DNA sequence: CGACCGATTGACGACCATCAAAGGTAGTGG
DNA sequence: CCACTACCTTTGATGGTCGTCAATCGGTCG
């Protein structure tokens, strides 16, 4: 596993290979994709409800979130996105965006034109399946969150979310030795899990007291993966990783 | 709008056309799909976590639900499926199923072999986009449920769910005059919205008292669509219907 | 008629929300 | 180098929405 910062194309391929086996030829085709690099600051909207973008956004560095707000102004974070993810892949087939995507840390983004992606899919039909599969895996994550937020108590819920992040970061090489960057604030964790910021703070304190996590600034450390997995009732089946990626 | 019971292929086409425009040729191709009809009773599992099916399931009559259960045995219903839906379309690209699908009323199902769907997609690449789009719309529904269950109070939450069902049934011609079949029990509504069965019962009583809904056995009637929409903060954008379908 | 399933009601309590304020920490600018 | 500011974290007090437990009612079907 490379520990040096990968190039945008390497990162994209590494992520895709965690859920779909790619041939050498397909990887070369992906490597030829034009990608436009952009840096953004924390708390910047990348895509907004109602937009009709002509490009997709690949996360290269930093975290972003997808969210929606109710009429009363309550925000639900629907998913967190980490390097290697393409949070708005759906815009390839859903013209009008129905969600918002924003950075929750400084980010480096890579924009890929829809037309380039479509062309790639035409020439390499297996890549159509790969991208489709990626959107299906994200749908599966939404479902797991629905279960998590709907049926599990706050403690388990937050433990589960941390497990998911560790797992998703690990497949792109960003969670070695149980340590990873986790720039989300407690308010953001709260909006993601559907509990209040105050209660999130209290639950995190208990998780720390129980020795399941420890934090230094935005670094999160998981000393005992099995214990945390158990506390969060975490089973990674829903991430649909292929075996080589989890090994 | 036809009121006679449509054939399986007519129903499938009607549903697909609500989110994707089909050419005459494409409709003919869909009409040629082999579909195996099966009748099942209430509360029967159709697909189970861990299965690796070689076919997809088209709902022809009745309601089904997708669900998951926590380690503590709490069930979260992740989505309700109505005639015209293919709840396990994802199995085309995610080999191992990570959810359960069960009937919540007597159902007539139509099974379509994966190989037939793949062949169809190869011959008609636009249909690939259509099916992909269908899975994206369902992902969008999961997201809206996440917002609904996470951030809205029980009253709004249930109103929203009823709005969604009315809308989705309407596009397949099953909700005329604000009346439709709604066979879900209160326990099932509870598991779908993440509140308890007892509280669901109380909220339904208030909704009835407020004149937003009335029920006779499994028939649900919505006397004032705009009032219910407002109570449920319902905006159908997330269903990504094309205009002709909503008119 | 009895069994079963779903709807309804009552009493009670807990988990978590709400409101408010105080500590910490990092970044900015004088 | 030290205010000053902004943001995040932490703490305390209070209460409400909703969960839990348990029982009854009502309709359906064999």
Q: Would you mind describing this structure in some detail?
A:
The structure is a homodimer of 247-residue chains. In chain A, helix 5 packs across helix 7 (197-209). In chain A, strand 4 (64-69) and strand 5 form a beta hairpin. The longest helix of chain A has 27 residues, at 125-151. Chain A folds into 2 domains: 8-127, Jelly Rolls (Sandwich), CATH 2.60.120; 148-246, Arc Repressor Mutant, subunit A. Chain A is an alpha+beta fold. Chain A is built from 9 helices and 10 strands. Chain A binds chain B through residues 49, 66, 68, 70-72, 74-76, 78, 90, 93-94, 96, 98-99, 122, 125, 128-129, 132-133, 135-140, 142-147, 149-152, 193-194, 233, 237-238, 240, and chain B through 49, 66, 68, 70-72, 74-76, 78, 90, 93-94, 96, 98-99, 122, 125, 128-129, 132-133, 135-140, 142-147, 149-152, 194, 233, 237-238, 240. Chain A binds a DNA duplex (30 and 30 nucleotides) through residues 153-154, 185-187, 195-199, 201-202, 204-205, 217.
């Amino acid at each position: 596993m490379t520990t040096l910062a990968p190039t945008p194309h390497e990162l994209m391929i590494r992520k895709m290979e965690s859920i779909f086996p790619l041939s050498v030829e397909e990887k070369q085709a992906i490597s030829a994709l034009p990608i436009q690099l952009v840096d953004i600051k924390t708390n910047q909207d990348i895509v907004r409800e109602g937009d009709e973008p002509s490009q997709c956004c690949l996360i290269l560095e930093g975290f972003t979130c997808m969210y929606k707000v109710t009429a009363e102004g309550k925000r639900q974070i629907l998913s967190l996105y980490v390097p290697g993810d393409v949070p708005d892949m759906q815009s390839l087939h859903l013209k009008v965006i129905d969600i918002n995507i924003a950075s929750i840390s400084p980010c480096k983004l890579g924009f890929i034109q829809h037309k380039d992606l479509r062309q790639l899919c035409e020439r390499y039909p297996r890549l159509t399946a790969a991208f489709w599969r990626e959107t299906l895996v994200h749908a599966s994550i939404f479902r797991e969150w629905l279960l998590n937020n709907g049926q599990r108590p706050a403690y388990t819920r937050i433990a589960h979310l941390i497990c998911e992040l560790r797992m998703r970061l690990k497949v792109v090489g960003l969670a070695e030795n149980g340590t990873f960057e986790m720039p989300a604030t407690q308010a953001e964790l709260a909006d993601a899990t559907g509990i209040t910021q105050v209660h999130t703070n209290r639950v995190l304190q208990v998780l720390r007291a129980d020795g399941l996590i420890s934090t230094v600034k935005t670094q999160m450390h998981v000393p005992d993966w099995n214990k945390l997995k158990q506390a969060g009732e975490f089973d990674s089946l829903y991430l649909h990783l292929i075996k080589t990626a989890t090994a």
